[in-house]
Amino acid sequence: MPSVSLTVNGQPHSVEVEGRTLLVELLREKLRLTGTHVGCDTSQCGACVVHVDGESVKSCTILAVQADGSAVTTIEGLAAPDGTLHPMQEAFREYHALQCGFCTPGMVMSAIDLVKKHPDGMSEHEIREGLEGNLCRCTGYHNIVKAIAAAQEVIHGRRETLAPAEA
Amino acid sequence: MYDFAFHKPSSLSEAVALLADPDARPISGGQTILPALKHRLDRPSALVDLSGIAELRGIRREGDRIVIGAMSRHAEISRDPTVAAAIPALARMAGNLGDTQVRNRGTMGGSLANNDPAADYPAAALGLGATFVTSRRRIGADDYFQGMFATALEPGELLTAIEFPVPEKAGYAKMRNPASRYVMTGVFVARGPMGVRVAVNGAGPGVFRQAEMEAALAANWSADAVAGIRQSPDTLNGDIHGSAEYRAHLVTVMAKRAVLDAG
Ligand SMILES: Cc1cc2nc3c(=O)[nH]c(=O)nc-3n(C[C@H](O)[C@H](O)[C@H](O)COP(=O)(O)OP(=O)(O)OC[C@H]3O[C@@H](n4cnc5c(N)ncnc54)[C@H](O)[C@@H]3O)c2cc1C
Ligand code: FES
Ligand code: FES
């Protein structure tokens, strides 16, 4: 059986897998990091998005062996050790950007990559386009877009704290 | 997905040797082959990962051509300053297909080897008259595309790079399928050392050239020149997403928009 060595949320792991084991299966079933969800398993919904070497990818559409030697970040790796949320998580909470929460881990991981790639900030339209690979069946997206628009200001240092959501 | 052996060669010659096994398949970005294997459409004995091969990487200008390594990912191509300066329509195409995560993994070589009728790059490659460089030979775009999911590649033959002549002008427009976001109908237009070329994707079983539009644009490079040209629906695809007649109509609309996109 092939063995895969990778770091996940800063922790090194060596895991025996099959050739066909998906990265999401390694994360959920071998490492018990079940924050990464599987919505469709057909590369469309984005519930499974994680970062591999800093880039957002659909972890249901990459083999574990393809991630050998990589640094992977999942939703579990975002908050600080003392529990302080990542600004994007905080924004999703503040703006009520979730209902059932199933899409949320993937939305947050995609959003962080998107914000990183647009240091000058994104318009509402650009945020919507950037979320093309993430489906949400509950929220209608409005609050997700608002959360990302607010979070980008904090992440890029244009504001110190998150703008509060309107009551 | 059935299980398979996994190899990650670091040179082209090693990859070619591994692919001498007729049941082994190359994997580049995996954004097409992994969904296909999940559906058990194929049962390879081995996957040969091309991502560790330096010869398949890199984007550079060589004289009047842009050479794009087969393993270049869509996101890389969309951000590449050389491509953006020489063929901005190609950079925009790469940044506008699939979604962010697909673009972070998927590659130009994988897409052109697959030749999905609803894929984007075939229109640019045929419209610009690209040359396909393989592990064995060089193939011109007019010979490379052979209909639905069919190319001139032989078993075990690998695409290594695609060479695009730098055009004077090039533009692309597509209508996306509202659900899958793949191309319903797209048109790529180009003018330059390759002459005037018009390639249509998404509409037929494979990408094809529109000779009447090419002649019209050669005489008069303007959206008006193609506005009155009607594509025959006879050889086009009709399915639940749109009839052949609808796609034929879109060919004219997209051709006008592509000329405007080219400027
Ligand atoms: C949700 C989603 C949306 C998408 N939307 C679009 C879209 O709008 N437009 C579009 O054009 N595409 C779209 N795609 C397809 C995407 O662009 C794929 O990345 C691409 O078609 C295949 O590239 P790959 O590198 O992932 O290839 P892989 O999946 O790795 O390989 C594809 C095929 O090519 C073969 N192959 C790979 N590399 C080589 C090579 N160098 N030489 C010879 N054979 C090779 C493989 O054996 C396999 O048969 C989408 C995909 C997904 C999952
Ligand atoms: S589970 Fe991976 S995209 Fe839906
Ligand atoms: S909150 Fe339920 S799917 Fe997005």
UniProtKB/TrEMBL annotation, chain A:
Gene3D superfamilies given in the database record: 3.10.20.30, [2Fe-2S]-binding domain
Lipid metabolism keyword on record: no
Lineage of source species: Bacteria, Pseudomonadati, Pseudomonadota, Alphaproteobacteria, Acetobacterales
Organism name: Muricoccus roseus
Domain of life: Bacteria
MF annotations from Gene Ontology: 2 iron, 2 sulfur cluster binding; metal ion binding; oxidoreductase activity
Keyword Iron set for record: yes
2Fe-2S ferredoxin-type domain boundaries: 2-78
Keywords of the record: 2Fe-2S, Iron, Iron-sulfur, Metal-binding, Oxidoreductase
Protein name: Carbon-monoxide dehydrogenase small subunit
UniProtKB/TrEMBL annotation, chain B:
Keywords, alphabetical: FAD, Flavoprotein, Oxidoreductase
Tree of life domain: Bacteria
Boundaries of every FAD-binding PCMH-type domain copy: 1-169
Signal peptide, first to last residue: none
Keyword Metal-binding carried by entry: no
One GO MF term: FAD binding
Protein name: Carbon-monoxide dehydrogenase medium subunit
Organism field: Muricoccus roseus
